[in-house]
Protein 1
Amino acid sequence: MSEINLDMNALAYDDLPADAFEKLPEDQKNNEFIAMESKTYFQDVWYNFKKNKLALVSLAFLLLMILFAIFAPILSKYSYEMQDLTNRNALPSAQHWFGTDKFGRDIFVRVMYGARISLSVGFAAAGINLVIGVIFGGICGYLGGRLDMILMRLVDIIYSVPTLLYVILIMLVFGSNIFSVLLAISVSSWAGLARQVRAQVMALKQQEYALAAKVMGASNKRILFKHLVTNSIGPIIVNTTLMVPSAIFTEAFLSFVGIGISIPQASWGTMANEARSLIASQPLQMLWPVLAICLTILSLNFIGDGLNQALDPKKR
């Protein structure tokens, strides 16, 4: 029956006139393919991140804050420590955008200079915690066994000691400076990331690609950092992003209570501490550093939320 059908189709084809067929236009030859541009992993993340308008606005605000922090103190004719006792507690004006404090210092320049300190501490602390947390958690999760038990008990001990106690001891030894604040923030903040990385690595090390790499002779170091940590990059980036506002708030709190950055250096915490005595008569002096802290922390949290959605396909 099939041979008869084939013969009938052949006869029907032969009976067609020569002009019954025409060439398909060039622009229609690839219509069966999906016209979609290929993207790398980070291009796809950026494409999905841009869909979150709140996160995009927060990123623009943060970049603007960084630019002002870098160039405003350089381009301004005022410095963060220059005093003008004839123009104390002035209201905002064309000369002094945020007014002046009780010593006649320009508050706008001091806020932007404080942004240098606060943002530097925040990003540096997040970077240090990222390196320590990934290495520590990755080793614990990949090797497991007795080493994992010992190292994770060390993490539990670090968690059990109040952070303020670390801060006080470090300040007594190294004094009140940026290095001391950075060290105090980094002593225990990495432990949370280490636990998260450990859990991710333990879940991924039994996957087929990790076992295949081991069978092909890849070293433990390559499997851990090339395959397992790379496939955990989404939660790691989100966690690191959220470390920045936490570090900024901790630095501001320490400076506000007088055990952080020392005067006359202008951090947002020290500015709020100085303005505290004038809050009844000059509330604007307290408003500017507090507003800078709140907006920066809020924007970083929105950026972290946007990255969380962009990096996790289940949340899109």
Note: The chain has a mean pLDDT of 80.
Protein 2
Amino acid sequence: MPEEVEIRESSVGRLRVRRCGSIEEAQHAAGEQAQAMEGAAVVPVVIFEQGRRTFLTSVMSMNWVANHAESRPAPKGAQTDAALAALNRPLVPAHSRAIGRYLREHYSENYIIPPLTLNLDQPATVYTLEFRDAPSLMGYLVLPPNAHMTITDGQHRQHGIAEFLNELRQERPNDYAQAARNGVPVMIVPESNIVQAHQDFADCSKVKALPPSLLTVYDARNPGNRLVIDLEKTCALFKGRIDSTSKVLSRNSTLLFLTNQVRQLVKELLCGSYALPEREFARRAQEQLAKKYQYEDALKKFSAYVNHVTKALAVWSRISRLPDTVEAGTIPALRAEGWLCLTATGLNLIGRVGHLLFRNGTREWRAYAERLGEIDWKRSADFWSGNVVQNNRILTQQGPLRLAVEKVCDAIGLTQELAAPSTANESVVEQVATTSG
């Protein structure tokens, strides 16, 4: 057996490191120890250091993650002592169910599960080489029989995987074996100090979620998102004037809208509500845009509508004709003039009118779109008082928006019969707590 070298207990916990002359010797020694322990597992790992500690990375099967990675969530509403005794935040079942649902929908195609961070707080041995001037070393970790690791980061992924495999085993046993063998990347932290384990969890949580606009750009599974990107390319108002990386749009921004705000416009045009729940929006987008001809028809129709309204609204028309090298202050100056149609609320309102026109197959939709230019779109206009503007503040809730839509429809001559929302759409939207635009 190779010479055993103990790593500092304070920084590596109970992990023992045994150094060998070659990687073949390390593999052979690890296999001998596992065989002697009966039921132990040999896991290929990469060994590296961060700060004063040694870490391991590897890939575990979904089945292993589901059955051997343990979470210790704090009870909801736990007091300080209970929270300190736990290793994870309170479990949010809806979050883990969403992950399980994502896996069920995509396991036979393409999907991705980010790495879990696991804590090895029980004795284990890793066989490796002598340390050299390299950022990492190959090695073999020997896990004792029935070894478990606690989850530092990723408990909702683990629960989602477990729920997914359990349902798949019952509903589609022929698919279960293959899915259970799929790999999940893990980073293993040999840490026996629970205080440091808590700190590791806090450090892992210090990540910035993708802003909704960037998520729209990157997530192409929903054809509604692709429609957003293509509208940006085909609409003169939007082209080169949409911010795809920010969460909010500054008053001084030289860009006009966020990608997420254009996405709300698409939700209005396609479904009749910017506040539609994401799952419902994805379902409807799949129903209405899944086939190539459906998608192309929707893109052509919505692009034509936005471009027609752009010509009708004086401020939109002016912005659409601005050169690429426009002076930095031009759009902020127009925004400061108080145009409702330069806000997310105005964009949603125009989208809702478009939805009503196309849903009912109104052949004269261009004429109605042109009449939108006859409305005073200044937020200070009496037209908006009592619906989407109160005390010079723009409201974003569904109720005020609905009142404004009714008033706009009346102003452009769109009859109540054509403008009436569908009952099915209303029942879904009324269940949603609206968000600001």
Note: The radius of gyration is 29 Å.
